[in-house]
Amino acid sequence: MLIEIIVGSGAALLVFLAWKGINVLPVLALGGLCFLLFYLLERRGELAPLRIGTCSPQAGVSFEDVGGQGPAKQELKEALEFILQAESVRAMGIRPLKGILLAGPPGTGKTLLAKAAAAYTDAVFLAVNGSEFIEVYAGVGAQRVRQLFRRARQMALAAGKNRAVVFIDEIDVLGSKRGTYHAHQEYDQTLNQLLVELDGIRPDEKVNVLVIAASNRTDLLDPALLRPGRFDRVVRVDLPDKQGRLQILQLHTRNKPLDPGVDLAAIAQETFGFSGAHLESVANEAAILALRDGAKSIAQHHFREAVDKVMLGEKLERKPTAEELRRIAVHETGHAVVSELLQPGSVTHLTITSRGNALGYIRQVPAEDFYLFTKEYLEGRIQICLAGSVAEDLVLGSGSTGGAGDFQEAVRLAKQYLEAGLSDLGVVSPEDLPAGVRHRTVQRIIGGLRERVRELLLPCRSALVKLADRLVTEETLSGDYLRAVLREEVNCA
Questions:
Q1: Containing structural domain, residue 28
Q2: Would you call 305 a catalytic residue per the annotation?
Q3: Per-residue pLDDT tens for 151-172?
Q4: Within this chain, do residues 246 and 227 fall inside the same structural domain, yes or no?
């Protein structure tokens, strides 16, 4: 109303000035320029529109399509019941949930869970990435936040629904702690607008909006975003355990021809630490390898090679010299022998085929998934890391740069050993520990364990030589062959 009064008064003034014989063209030109500038500022959100992904519940995924996340699915379903039973919730005086944060490593299925939530509640689904809200122009991000929520309500009404799920991926870009970017207030303005929109969600609206966000860096999020009344629930979406990995593999091989001899449980056991995205890639790469071989079905060896490819990369054509190949074989044999002595039955195969940055590698299979490491377990892992360079010293008389990566991993494990209070220093505060003391303690831990490795390998020197010679010829040895050779060596305990 005010704008109409101002425009009418301005037009009347211009007519009066023109009637008096005053040239009003400069005033008109200036007014037109101001109007154009105002229009562009108002419409800057539409000039760079927010890219929103949508998915209908019928075409989306269900919770049955998400494997390996039983606890997360159960917790999310319980939260969604507040939307499905809106009348009962309102009768009990319960405030509906406004936001759910899915927190966990990349590739664990957070987006799939959000789509499944939309299907579960029969709601329209809108997906957007946190980076879409950040622009160089002040105010654009806030405009896009308003646009997102307005679009969610419009789509729900157009579809004849009263529910909408808004999914914001990588929300740490949008919702990082205010004041982090001192030179750019656009981040803070955008976050403030998101907080306003969350606060504006009311239970008596025509459309119930639920915001689901995903992040793998929750430590970066602003505390105002995580307080009750905004993001009410934080659902952990962690890496799957062995049973979860088996479920995921079964889901991703439903449409693939598998050989009758394929044992997905064995593949699940060998892929500790893999996310759902990794496992999907394993199934896909196995199918590609089978197609490359001209096979009509995917065999177990295709899956094993696919695991290696996902972990380390494609095979390389680099050809080490005969001397280098011999050293690599001795190095990998050292790792394999110590691993087998400390953890019997753990080695599935060893190879000197180059992949990625690795000139050779051994594959170990843990008997169970470990989430809590004992002192003995950490000491064993450090010894396995050191075994390659010790084997080179014993068989070839000197070490090489091939053990650099192993040493870095050994140092990382030794620091973990120290910080857990397992060293001779006892319980310590890592931040208050002088750098010199920390370095000497780590050095002492590694030095002592290196001597243990030497004592383990010294009686097995002949087995090391035999295995290394065979590895140079065959390029790959199975864990069964390794164990057979070790059993023949009476001195190798």
A1: 2-42
A2: no
A3: 888 888 888 888 888 888 888 8
A4: no
